[in-house]
Amino acid sequence: MLESIKNFFRSSMSPSPEADKAESAPDIRLAACALLLELAQADDEFTDDERQHLESAIRRQYGLDQAEAEKLLELAQEARDEAIDLWQFTNLIAENYSLGQKMVLAEIMWGLVYSDGDLAEKEDYLMRKICNLLRLEPGYLAEARKRAGDSERADPMDSMD
Predict the structure, then answer these.
(1) In 21-156, at which residue ranges do the beta strands (DSSP E only) sit?
(2) What is the CATH number of domain 2-10+26-158?
(3) 3-state DSSP percent of the chain in helix, strand and coil, to 5
(4) How far apart are CA 93 and CA 70, in angstroms?
(5) Through-space distance between the first and last CA atoms of the chain, rounded to whole angstroms
(6) What DSSP assignment string belongs to 31-61?
(7) CA-angle at 147, arms to 64 and 49, nearest 5°
(8) Which of 39, 43, 83, 158 is 20 to 30 A away from residue 77, measured at CA?
(9) pLDDT tens digit string along 126-161?
(10) What is the largest CA-CA distance in the chain?
(11) Per-domain residue ranges of the chain
(12) How far apart are CA 106 and CA 130, in angstroms?
């Protein structure tokens, strides 16, 4: 499986020339998608609304077309299935994302858990756990939650901008 992930990123997701972190960028995308999938399935129900929100967010955030987004989600699901815990994903992100990038990810995560119209207790718990592992302070978590809620009410398609 690891080789298929590497081949996917080599063939269709080459980072831009100005990116010095060429090796870690694909892994970070995979890690972020694995966390989003974990959240989407936290309440044991992955709704169509959640799937649409997730696919749309990934396409916009990473500049992917539909097929690339689906492949990334497929690979992220495989990585998630093989993972022992969330630390491997959260640590990679915590070490490589700036505070601003973590905030954007947190907003995407809040938008995802609210996309089905209901915040399950498991989703709320997992959001707090992931944000703690990402080393986001509670104040930042609250701000990301507020901004995600504001964005969802304004225009659900702009939640990642």
Answers:
(1) none
(2) 1.10.3680.10
(3) 75, 0, 25
(4) 21
(5) 32
(6) HHHHHHHHHHTTTS---HHHHHHHHHHHHHH
(7) 50
(8) 158
(9) 988 998 999 988 777 777 777 776 555 444 444 444
(10) 43
(11) 2-10+26-158
(12) 9
